[in-house]
Write a structure and sequence with these properties.
mainly beta, three-stranded antiparallel sheet, 0% helix, Alkylphosphonate utilization protein, YjdM_C
Length: 73
C-alpha cells in the first residue's frame, strides 16, 4: 500500500494530530450546526482517503471534513 499524502487548501502536508482552521462557513449535514470560517479544529486524524480528515469539534463528534476547506493552523 502506498502512503497517501494529504494536503490542505494551500498545499501544506497534513499529519495526524495537526490543528486546522476552516476557510469558509461549512454547514454540517444532519445537524443544525454551521462551522464558521476561521473555526479552529484540533488533533485531526487522517482517513484512508486523500481528500478527507476526521475530527471532533465542541458540538459535533466524529466529523469528516474535506481538506479543500481547511488550512493548517
Amino acid at each position: 500500500m502506498s502512503d497517501i499524502v494529504v494536503k490542505d487548501s494551500n498545499g501544506n502536508v497534513l499529519a495526524d494530530g495537526d490543528s486546522v482552521t476552516t476557510v469558509k462557513d461549512l454547514k454540517v449535514k444532519g445537524t443544525s450546526e454551521t462551522l464558521k470560517r476561521g473555526t479552529l479544529v484540533k488533533s485531526i486524524r487522517l482517513t484512508g482517503r486523500a481528500g478527507e480528515v476526521e475530527c471532533n469539534t465542541k458540538k459535533v463528534k466524529g466529523l469528516v471534513l474535506r481538506t479543500e476547506f481547511l488550512k493548517k493552523a
